[in-house]
Specification:
The protein is globular. About 55% of the residues lie in helices and about 0% in strands. The protein has helices at about 5-15, 15-25, 30-35, 45-55, 60. Helix 2 crosses helix 3.
Length: about 70
């Protein structure tokens, strides 16, 4: 499942998939796959994104996966 909050915050702040990929040193497609939930971020990648782009937001909020009922609760 995609990281809905991360995607929303990226859109609000004008942060592109390319910027995430560059920060992490990975291909753009790999970053897109992680953001869209096709693969997972490592904890180090998540921390790097949070500290670099969203220091006022929590890791839990940014990387929360949407639950099946759509509530975000797990």
């Amino acid at each position: 499942m995609p990281c809905i909050n991360l995607k929303g915050e990226m859109a609000k702040n004008g942060i592109t998939i390319e910027a995430i990929a560059k920060l992490l040193g990975i291909h753009r497609n790999s970053a897109a796959n992680k953001i869209n939930g096709d693969s997972s971020f490592t904890i180090d990648e998540a921390i790097t994104i949070q500290r670099s782009f969203f220091p006022k937001l929590t890791l839990r909020y940014l990387f929360e996966k949407e639950s099946e009922d759509g509530s975000g609760n797990q």
